[in-house]
Amino acid sequence: MGEDTDAPPTLNHRGFLPDHNYVTEADIISTVEFNHTGELLATGDKGGRVVIFQREPESKCEPFSQGEYNVYSTFQSHEPEFDYLKSLEIEEKINKIRWLPQQNAAHFLLSTNDKTIKLWKVSERDKRPEGYNLKDEEGRIKDLSTITSLQVPVLMPMDLMVEVSPRRVFANAHTYHVNSISVNSDYQTYMSADDLRINLWHLDITDRSFNIVDIKPANMEDLTEVITAAEFHPHHCNLFVYSSSKGTLRLCDMREAALCDKHSKLFEEPEDPSARSFFSEIISSVSDVKFSHSGRYLLTRDYLTAKVWDLNMESKPLETYQVHDYLRSKLCSLYENDCIFDKFECAWNGSDSVIMTGAYNNFFRMFDRNTKRDVTLEASRESSKPRAVLKPRRVCAAGGKRRKDDISVDSLDFTKKILHTAWHPTENIIAIAATNNLYIFQDKLNSELH
Amino acid sequence: MIMKGQKRKPPPEEVEVSDRSSPMWESQRQFVFSVSLNKYHHGQELPEPSLRRSVLIANTLRQVSLEAFAAPSVDMEMSPPPCSSSSALHESVVTAKQHPAETFSALVSCPTVTLNDLSYCVPASNAPLSLKDEDEDWGSMSMDSDFSLSAAISSILTALDSTIDSSSQAAPRTPLRSLENLSAPSDGGVAWVKQGLRGYGGGWEQQEEGRAWESSTELMRCSYLSELTVEDLFQDIDTSLLERDMEVLGLIGSGGGCLTGDDLLRYLPPFSSSPPSHPFSLSLNQNLKCLPSLSSFGPLSSSSSLPSLSSPHFSSQNHVREGLDLEHLMEILVES
């Protein structure tokens, strides 16, 4: 593979407090998502803001320099709310952003916090009408006696203005915290999943939604499993998958029944009795699930591994990749400091040949499914200067033979975690969210790969 | 491998031990048990409470205690028999009052422990302790072989403290408490009940409440009321007025029983570690903190008539909840 080892990455990051060690909590990036063409990249943060980056067109003079991503628009998507009925604070943190496929000049995206999903329209305005009859240039009403002739207003170019406006607000449908949204391939409906329920919405209808999955037990004391992620199939508008905290995946067909509590397929790997520990269940909890672009495979991430499943084989995953197996002996400590509950996301590349996921110490990992090679890279200011080549990193197990530049397991910084990553839909450009910084890496040798 | 700013505790066994017969397995199990219990109780105080996290911790706790059952020979080294750790867990869990989902219905099916067993298992607690000293005494108890049980008990006390503590009262958050305000009326009734009981440290699910309060009273009785019975403490209280209220609320109605000290204990907020020796002399302010949510109930679904249940529980109090007169109840408590 080695694409990033040869390529000069372009580093774009936003850090509001560049030289301080502490991080403003509101700036912590909580979601990253490319749109369907890859031209736009949206990030959401804990403060409820969404920042959209746009890729600059390739420069003619330097044919090998791909366009960089620059800030296109920033807006406040969600505000903190207080539920007076239950005396609960509703956080404004953006849990997920999903773009709608572009159907006209404007772009649409869905953003959600714990309770409310909003549809935003992002449009450009680069012309404005001038030459009104009744108003002058400043907008003041003209004295009618001074008007001697009629003129037709004309559109004159102006500085580009990006306008973002909320078009729909889908509220009051979730009792528990929304963890996933997914737009259907019919481009008319989407689903939102919380810990116990999944609702189906129509994009034009905000006052009602259909509940399609409900795993809430009649007696809450019997609750042992929650929904952790959900996604629609990329091509079949009737299929969706949801993952659980017990490590299972359920593929559901909406044609079978109105309520999809009964799954069509259940993907579960039998537990290895020799590897059983007190934390077996916790580390089997699936934190993210993604369909491949082809729709044939599923990529899941649990605490220590990333797995690729074939939709046709429910009994076990097709491939299992160890992300950071050196943590297996540290589970006690990781349980104590709560790191074991971290939810890492995962991503496919455009051709479904490489998968990527994050880890600790600002490391992220890529696995090539064909060559079986993998690489560990670091997203940090110190190791990444603009146009510099990323150097592969290595973590050596405690007590193992240590090479130069290796990092020992005990030196890993568990406060620096790469939870959110995204891969451009067609090119080898990746976006990595490291706490409050966003790193964008691209591969120079784009055209040659895959 | 510690988070920045955290003091390093004695590290647990780093290597995961799958072999049950290994002594390290038992110490690991105990470590996991105590950490899990701690996390379970403090789950509310997180800035971002997560249902997934709570469920995973609860499942781990359940698994750890069930494995204690499965390996009784190892536990025999400890002074209490295996049932004690699970019984302590049972007691502590049902008194946690934080998450209704995390009350261990699975553990209830474990051999139930009678009061005698519990008092046997907690030898040092027979001496009456003032509430002020109890934390220190429990702390020293954690050094002895009865580690898991005392850890459980101290966690219970922590939970009891935290429910009355004013700081934690400010914004207790339970994802589970945010129950349906959109769904069927019957569920809405439960939601109202849950919210109102927040003063007692959390929501309740239906059938567990009677059992839970009974267990909590048993434990409290065992630990620091061994020389007093509940009836003794309450004999000064004029319960005639209270009886009327409790009848209205259905606590006595179909149950058929007369008011007992247990019933009153269900009403009362949990103990705090207040200096006065009399455990019931809670300050007026504390009472107000614990009880005000009772008056916040609104009219609930009329579909829930008083069911005939052997153990009274709060969720049956639906439409008559509005009959509760907060000030009236306060008078009764203050008189004592």
UniProtKB/TrEMBL annotation, chain A:
InterPro entries attached to this UniProt entry: PP2A_PR55, PP2A_PR55_CS, WD40/YVTN_repeat-like_dom_sf, WD40_repeat_dom_sf, WD40_rpt
Highest rank taxon of the organism: Eukaryota
Molecular function terms from GO: protein phosphatase regulator activity
This protein's record includes keyword Repeat: yes
Annotated SMART domains: WD40 (SM00320)
An annotated GO cellular component: protein phosphatase type 2A complex
Claim: Repeat is one of the keywords in the record: yes
Signal peptide start and end residues: none
Sorted UniProt keywords: Repeat, WD repeat
Record text on subunit structure and interactions: PP2A consists of a common heterodimeric core enzyme, composed of a 36 kDa catalytic subunit (subunit C) and a 65 kDa constant regulatory subunit (PR65 or subunit A), that associates with a variety of regulatory subunits.
Family stated for the protein in its record: Belongs to the phosphatase 2A regulatory subunit B family.
PANTHER family: PROTEIN PHOSPHATASE PP2A REGULATORY SUBUNIT B
Official protein name in the record: Serine/threonine-protein phosphatase 2A 55 kDa regulatory subunit B
Naturally occurring in which organism (per UniProt): Gymnodraco acuticeps (Antarctic dragonfish)
From TrEMBL, chain B:
Residues of the SERTA domain: 25-72
Domain of life: Eukaryota
A Pfam short name: SERTA
PROSITE patterns tied to this protein: SERTA (PS51053)
CC annotations in GO: nucleus
Region (Disordered): 1-22
Protein name: SERTA domain-containing protein 3
Species of the source: Gymnodraco acuticeps
